[in-house]
Amino acid sequence: MEAKYLKINPADNVAVAITALPAGEKLTVDGKEITLNEDVPAGHKFALKDFAEGENVIKYGYPIGHARKAQKQGDWMNENNIKTNLSGLLEYTYNPVNVDLNTTTLNLNTGAPNLTFRGYKRKNGDVGVRNEIWIIPTVGCVNGIINQLAEGLRRETGGKGVDAIMAYPHNYGCSQLGDDHENTKKILRDKTGMDELIRTGQTKRTLFTLAGKSYTGNDFIRFAAAYPAGVRRQLDAFVMKTVLDYENVCLERKYPELRYQVEEYRNRLLLDKITGQEIHKRIGSDETGLQTYFEKHRSDYQWRKQRYKGIVLHGVSKRIVKQARKFLKSLPEEEWKDAIRLTFNAGAQPQIQAEQGTFASGDNVYVDDLVFKGKDAAPMVSFPFTAVLGKKVKAPDDYREVKDRVVTDYRNCLEKQWITRLRTSAKVEINQEVLKTVNNH
């Protein structure tokens, strides 16, 4: 049965609707039946118990706020009836509730007790989900050495057993003493600046340093202007965004395969842009070039079986069809449809219905019947008399009859000519010494 709700932590007194749940829906949570008192949108909370005014609302095993007023079991719990517990500056501690994921203690309403995730165990019993080696120097004067160490480790390990090997250089540590040196060693985070920012709401000090670049209170102010929240939450978000932005910049350096893929993608975009300017735009308006190419390669476009190039006439009477066929014989093919429209269909009641084109066997049942001697075709109800006018042909007379093929072939021809011009005008030199090294790998 599809899960309808999620209780995240055994200590929670609210659950989250996975899908939109209507009022009156009956759910069984931890063996207790709960009836929803109102509609609960997907992703929103509903009460698992009665709440007194001011009673804490528990989610993730931790109070996320308290009830503004008394609430009943099954009520929709949202910002209108939950108020934050935050007030002024408070000190918080994190007391997680340990849950054995290999038992059914964690009620996910999924029917699957043995939950797992992709990770690994550390020697101390903790678990991790990413295995990277970071080399962070305590002094900036060894930046060159740590870069060499990282590169040497990448070569030595071949990337096996580790997600990434990274060097994080900086310009601090040398000649620093006391607290200054200690702060640098603690992942280069400026505790004084952090404390001042949290205490007063502003600072000009350095908040932290990442990869040799210092981020100050002024940087934080620019970020906070676009991120309305409390100072602590703004600071956490600022640090997270800075780290993620840096990681994004370093992606290609950390993951060589990604760098090659991105480089290949860039080259493709550049090639597509150049070929678009040199070739594709030219083809769109080069009717003369297409016709000339078709005439030169006409034999490439011959059909294996003959086709019928002409018009199929359906008329309201045998006399009308005979008149139309005789009339069209005296006109060029490109004028046939207009002639039918103006001569036979100008009145309120059309006399002729026509289909003009180049027909292969199987394209038109009336051509199959009258030209290729196939199965008899049933007459049309409103136009029961049918005749054809045209001829059998072995190949198209005009490139527009096979335009898609001609355009593709003409484009390929122009690309080959363009590449030949490039090779003729641009000399290519191969470094034999480097080539030997590549071959050895």
How would you describe this structure to a colleague?
With 441 residues, this protein is of the alpha+beta class. The chain has helices at residues 143-157, 178-185, 191-200, 217-224, 231-254, 256-285, 287-296, 318-329, 336-343, 365-370, 403-425, 432-440, and strands at 5-6, 14-17, 26-29, 32-35, 45-47, 56-59, 62-67, 76-77, 82-83, 120-121, 127-128, 132-135, 164-167, 206-210, 213-216, 307-315, 352-359, 385-393. The chain has a four-stranded antiparallel β-sheet with strand order 1-2-5-8, with no helix packed on it. A three-stranded antiparallel β-sheet has the order 6-7-9, with no helix packed on it. A three-stranded antiparallel β-sheet has the order 17-16-18. A hairpin with a 7-residue loop joins strand 1 (5-6) and strand 2. It is flat. Mean pLDDT is 81; it is low at 175-180.
Largest sheet: 4 strands, antiparallel
Q: Which stretches are poorly predicted, pLDDT < 50 over at least 5 residues?
A: 175-180
User: Average pLDDT value?
Assistant: 81
Cα-atom radius of gyration: 39 Å
List the helices and strands and how they pair.
Elements lengths: L4 E2 L7 E4 L8 E4 L2 E4 L9 E3 L8 E4 L2 E6 L8 E2 L4 E2 L36 E2 L5 E2 L3 E4 L7 H15 L6 E4 L10 H8 L5 H10 L5 E5 L2 E4 H8 L6 H24 L1 H30 L1 H10 L10 E9 L2 H12 L6 H8 L8 E8 L5 H6 L14 E9 L9 H23 L6 H9 L1
Parallel strand pairs: 12-13
Antiparallel strand pairs: 1-2, 2-5, 3-4, 5-8, 6-7, 7-9, 10-11, 14-15, 16-17, 16-18
Helix pairs in contact: 5-6, 6-11
